[in-house]
């Protein structure tokens, strides 16, 4: 019996879901895209992901969720080139270390900066974000242009959705990574990422994304992520 096509439960606005979407496209997987509203925790949706979050990859009738796990799963279940994670165990571990850095040190200050309403909290988040982007930059392969070298891979995909939507922080917080020597390699990275065909394919209308982001910038977004930021808790 032929196994069904993998399904990707995604949403046009979700940077976490875009990680899985970009991975599917980069690997050339033949998949079915399903636009899912993750905020309506219907029984049907919770049966697909008990955490109720997108993305979810359903493959051979089983659900894989958590965006970083989805990237790894997609790479392993469709092991053809290009590999998203390096084969060498040390290089693989290093990719995971920097993917973890993105999750813990880049994504949270991004949302703190966008959601927090006091000048002091925004300044703290801005400084944290800049400091951490610098550390991320200094760990990049010197030649690049991607994080680990010539090809788009796991670490790039982990941060790409915030890179190609950097206009959100520009629009709402007048924030840009400075065009200085120390961030030069970062700009080379972001240009390569933003121009990659898989990234171009998932990009959404800028005005639509800005409108969706407005409640975040005004501090009243209703989502598990926004709640976590408001309560200074770990992101869902
Ligand atoms: N840790 C999760 C986070 C995913 C996530 O927060 N997705 C959001 C949409 S961007 C969601 O499903 N939110 C549903 C909610 O807040 O109820 C992952 O990396 O996959």
UniProtKB/TrEMBL annotation:
<dbReference type="InterPro" id="IPR004046">
    <property type="entry name" value="GST_C"/>
</dbReference>
<dbReference type="GO" id="GO:0004364">
    <property type="term" value="F:glutathione transferase activity"/>
</dbReference>
<dbReference type="InterPro" id="IPR045074">
    <property type="entry name" value="GST_C_Tau"/>
</dbReference>
<dbReference type="InterPro" id="IPR010987">
    <property type="entry name" value="Glutathione-S-Trfase_C-like"/>
</dbReference>
<keyword id="KW-0808">Transferase</keyword>
<dbReference type="GO" id="GO:0005737">
    <property type="term" value="C:cytoplasm"/>
</dbReference>
<dbReference type="InterPro" id="IPR036249">
    <property type="entry name" value="Thioredoxin-like_sf"/>
</dbReference>
<comment type="function">
    <text>Exhibits glutathione-dependent thiol transferase activity. Has high dehydroascorbate reductase activity and may contribute to the recycling of ascorbic acid. Participates in the biotransformation of inorganic arsenic and reduces monomethylarsonic acid (MMA).</text>
</comment>
<dbReference type="InterPro" id="IPR050983">
    <property type="entry name" value="GST_Omega/HSP26"/>
</dbReference>
<dbReference type="GO" id="GO:0050610">
    <property type="term" value="F:methylarsonate reductase activity"/>
</dbReference>
<dbReference type="InterPro" id="IPR036282">
    <property type="entry name" value="Glutathione-S-Trfase_C_sf"/>
</dbReference>
<dbReference type="GO" id="GO:0045174">
    <property type="term" value="F:glutathione dehydrogenase (ascorbate) activity"/>
</dbReference>
<dbReference type="InterPro" id="IPR005442">
    <property type="entry name" value="GST_omega"/>
</dbReference>
<keyword id="KW-0560">Oxidoreductase</keyword>
<feature type="domain" description="GST N-terminal">
    <location>
        <begin position="4"/>
        <end position="82"/>
    </location>
</feature>
<dbReference type="GO" id="GO:0006749">
    <property type="term" value="P:glutathione metabolic process"/>
</dbReference>
<dbReference type="Pfam" id="PF13409">
    <property type="entry name" value="GST_N_2"/>
</dbReference>
<dbReference type="Pfam" id="PF00043">
    <property type="entry name" value="GST_C"/>
</dbReference>
<comment type="similarity">
    <text>Belongs to the GST superfamily. Omega family.</text>
</comment>
<protein>
    <recommendedName>
        <fullName>Glutathione S-transferase omega</fullName>
        <ecNumber>1.20.4.2</ecNumber>
        <ecNumber>1.8.5.1</ecNumber>
        <ecNumber>2.5.1.18</ecNumber>
    </recommendedName>
</protein>
<dbReference type="InterPro" id="IPR045073">
    <property type="entry name" value="Omega/Tau-like"/>
</dbReference>
<dbReference type="InterPro" id="IPR004045">
    <property type="entry name" value="Glutathione_S-Trfase_N"/>
</dbReference>
<dbReference type="InterPro" id="IPR040079">
    <property type="entry name" value="Glutathione_S-Trfase"/>
</dbReference>
<feature type="domain" description="GST C-terminal">
    <location>
        <begin position="88"/>
        <end position="212"/>
    </location>
</feature>
